[in-house]
Write a structure and sequence with these properties.
Strand content: under 5%
Largest sheet: none
Shape: elongated
Number of helices: 10
Structural class: mainly alpha
Order of helices and strands: HHHHHHHHHH
Radius of gyration: 21 Å
Number of strands: 0
Helix content: over 70%
């Protein structure tokens, strides 16, 4: 019963954050920009490195298997679909959850510890509109951008592997990689990550605002922020993928 009550409070917090988002964009747009820079720009090195390594390693593993079965020419098309449609979006969500889940929880947990949240409330400022909404919006905007960067980095990594140990030319590799990709699939896979970012932002802030008033509690909040944000990304992906597929089927967009 207590967990159900706790979940209900989180849902109310989530809805209040969504309701405060337009006001945050209008009145705190500079804070949104600063948080976006924090999430997107400062995450670029790890995102590019992770994408490149995933693309290269995926090529190494699949190339060995496809060569053994005489299907080496199919590698670019299958790899690009796997990366762009699923691996890239989920990896972007997990990386942001790992970085910002802990960061937001620790940041707002420290503000709670120092009684800054209570001071804002006493001055008539809504913490949800002033603190949570700009961070959640920034995460929701940043993750799709980082997904594009991961996809591009992974394909570059795969191309590097092909140039090193394969037989295809760069032009043939890029042409074959587009065989099964549809623009609709790319757009859907990229835009769904906005939900990942929104969940990471809201969960990280929620945990930070509800942490205890001790240094140990802030540390635990940072750990919980990573764990719960990552689980939320996986759970959202499980829900979103079939929903997108059902919507495409209902609208008649499932064909080539």
């Amino acid at each position: 019963m207590r967990r159900l009550e706790h979940f209900g409070r989180f849902v109310d917090f989530f809805l209040r954050t969504l309701a405060a988002a337009p006001r945050a964009v209008a009145r705190s747009w500079l804070e949104v920009v600063l948080q976006f820079e924090r999430v997107a720009v400062m995450s670029l090195p790890i995102v590019m490195g992770a994408g490149f390594s995933v693309g290269l390693v995926t090529w190494l593993q699949t190339h060995r298997l496809l060569v053994a079965n005489g299907a080496e020419s199919a590698l670019p098309s299958f790899l690009s679909v796997a990366v762009v449609v699923e691996i890239g979006p989920v990896l972007a969500g997990v990386l942001v959850a790992s970085r910002m889940g802990a960061g937001l929880a620790a940041e707002l947990g420290t503000m709670t510890l120092n009684e800054e949240i209570e001071a804002r409330v006493a001055l008539g400022t809504d913490p949800v509109a002033g603190l949570v909404a700009p961070r959640a919006i920034a995460c929701a905007l940043a993750v799709p951008l980082l997904t594009v960067v991961i996809d591009a980095s992974a394909l570059v990594g795969a191309l590097t592997g092909e140039l090193t140990g394969g037989k295809l030319t760069p032009l043939r590799f890029w042409r074959d990689s587009l065989t099964f990709l549809r623009m609709a699939d790319v757009i859907e896979a990229t835009l769904k990550t906005a939900v990942f970012g929104l969940l990471v932002g809201v969960i990280g802030c929620w945990i930070g605002l509800n942490s205890g008033r001790s240094a140990e509690s802030v540390g635990r909040a940072a750990t919980r922020g990573v764990v719960l944000s990552t689980l939320a990304v996986f759970a959202a992906n499980v829900v979103l993928v079939p929903c997108i597929q059902l919507a495409n089927a209902a609208l008649g967009w499932g064909g080539p």
